[in-house]
Amino acid sequence: MTIPLIASLTVAAAAMGGRYMIQAWQAFKARPVVPRVRRFYPGGFEQQMTKREASLILGVREHSPPDKIKEAHRRVMVANHPDSEGSHYLASKINEAKDMLAGKLRGGSSVF
Question: Residue 48 to residues 35, 44, 92, 95, 109: CA-CA distances in angstroms?
Fold first, then answer.
């Protein structure tokens, strides 16, 4: 008499555990995708912009294709545009970084 009781309790516990695992998996899949925290360049700007600094400002590689550079420039400019409470200094540095990576500048400095 005790063997069927133990067997039924074991099956019930396994069913409840399986149900809990399925619900946990569905909740895990439904969670919003949170991007990883990106580390930003901690230092200030150099006197004369280099390709390395330009790539760090835009968040692309030094030898990225022009379309990636344009997309990165647009993304960073939208966040820092002077018309939307951004800084004129940062906007000039972002534009200078785009020009540097696009090959329009050989190494100059911004207006500021």
Answer: 33, 12, 13, 14, 5
**pLDDT at position 111, please?**
53
Dihedral in degrees, nearest 10, Cα atoms 59, 60, 66, 72: -20
Q: Which residue has the higher pLDDT, 62 or 111?
A: 62
Site of tokens 């835009």: 58
Model confidence band, residue 38 (pLDDT cutoffs 50, 70, 90)? low
Contact 88, 69 (CB under 8 A): no
pLDDT averaged over the chain? 86
In what helix (H) or strand (E) does residue 21 lie, and over which residues does it extend? helix 2-30
What is the C-alpha to C-alpha distance for residues 27 and 30, in angstroms, rounded to an integer? 5
